[in-house]
Amino acid sequence: MIEGLDGAGKRTLANGLTEALHAQGRTVTSHAFPRYGQSVHADLVRDALYGRIGDLSDSVYGMAVLYALDRRGAADQIRKDLEQYDVVLLDRYVASNAAYNAARLRQDENGEFVEWVRALEIDRFGLPVPDLHLLLRVPVEVAAERAAKREQDDDTRARDIYESNSDLQTRCGIVYDGLANINWLAPWQVVDGRSNVKFHSLLEPLFTP
Ligand SMILES: Nc1ncnc2c1ncn2[C@@H]1O[C@H](COP(=O)(O)OP(=O)(O)O)[C@@H](O)[C@H]1O
Ligand SMILES: Cc1cn([C@H]2C[C@H](O)[C@@H](COP(=O)(O)OP(=O)(O)O)O2)c(=O)[nH]c1=O
């Protein structure tokens, strides 16, 4: 699973890892969440994030449920892919829901919230537990600059209300670090995303049991 702030370089890393794995002769597939344009729940998320469903985006739990339902709709496909491919790369997964939405609550509510996300998505919805999280870590300012640049280059990736809120991004980075420290849900590996990421050096942990 590839996790990190908006603009951290997750999609770039997913593409780089795919190429590096193909070069090793491995089969790879990838999914990105939210699945905008492919699921009713993801499209509702997008409407909410761009302020088109009243004050729905103010509800932390309401938004988290929508993101979780989007993933639940992909669960069967992910399970099939895990049987069929050597590697299944996910650009954001359950941990994004924990990090982004915990970051919108008071700090003393975070522990309870991330456990609620785990219980909802893993226990109740039956989503597969990931083998590894790769946390692409960059300073908030760098992520924001990259997200702004990406917005100019690719008009399908305009910044939403989460992405343009730098306080939220800062808190989200802190929650991600906390999740990585306790290896929440599965092992975490922190990747320095400030310079060019060495894709090949990341391949070994993918195959270490
Ligand atoms: N290691 C890197 N160094 C410099 N720029 C990068 C790096 N990784 C990604 N970028 C650039 O930053 C922007 C955001 O990258 P992207 O992979 O779309 O991020 P994310 O999927 O995390 O939002 C893109 O314009 C991309 O070309
Ligand atoms: C997948 C996911 C994303 N998010 C947040 C992180 C992002 O700020 C926002 C949108 O995801 P994002 O990856 O930015 O989508 P795109 O790059 O296609 O615009 O949703 C959650 O809060 N929970 C989740 O489960």
UniProtKB/TrEMBL annotation:
Q: What is its EC number?
A: 2.7.4.9
Name one matching Pfam family. Answer: Thymidylate_kin
Keywords, alphabetical: ATP-binding, Kinase, Nucleotide biosynthesis, Nucleotide-binding, Transferase
CDD domains on file: TMPK (cd01672)
Would you say which domain of life the source belongs to? Bacteria
Q: Thymidylate kinase-like domain: which residues?
A: 2-161
Broad class of enzyme this protein falls into? transferase
Q: Which GO terms describe its molecular function?
A: kinase activity
Q: Does the keyword Nucleotide-binding apply?
A: yes
Q: Which family does it belong to?
A: Belongs to the thymidylate kinase family.
- Descriptive protein name: Thymidylate kinase
Q: Which organism is it from?
A: Lentzea atacamensis
